[in-house]
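It would be a great kindness if you could assist me with a short task in structural biology. I am sending you one protein, given as its amino acid sequence and as whole-number tokens for its backbone shapes. I would ask you to consider whether the tokens describe a fold that such a sequence might reasonably adopt. The full record is reproduced below for your convenience.
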Amino acid sequence: MPDTQTEAVRLLEETGAVKTGHFLLSSGLHSGKYCQCAALFEHPGVAAKMAAMLVSTLPPTLSVDVVLAPALGGVLWGYEVARALGNARRAAVRSLFAERQTGQAFELRRGFEIKPGERVLLAEDVVTTGGSVMELVPLVEASGGVVAAFAAVADRSRGKFRPEQPFFSLVKLDFETFEQGSCPMCKAGSSAVKPGSRAIAGAAGWSR
């Protein structure tokens, strides 16, 4: 039986969330791999399975009342994790998300609230620097809640994201990157494309 990391990577590849090709990253570096978790959530059944896999790795002593995610990327993942937690523990776990206007701090809108003393799991789809999800910490604390842990589909921080609270992820991704001048794919005559462009849309298919 495959371990959690192996199975999660397989599902990410099958849904097209992990793509293989020649990509120009926002950093200006080139890579032969790219992760876009939005592709995972095109397949709700698979996303639900992965959320259940994540929940199965959480210690039973970890108490959670609320799952909070940053909009936009973490919203669907937070919802699925909250549902999986509720199903696994037969308890009511609420799913909330925080929003912000450009240049502003995250805030709770739409009548969402965290009650004093509630234990909050912060959910994000992909953690690279952890900047967005860490911005939720003061929001939780200002509401009187307690940050219980962090949970992500993929950890791309290379061990650099180390919050005070426990951090759980299904997979750790460490894609090799290259400067343009030393990129072996460029030397082989390949042209890099920006992730999300039409040039790579549908490049990785979904196999059932």
Summary: Confidence is low (pLDDT under 50) at residues 198-208.
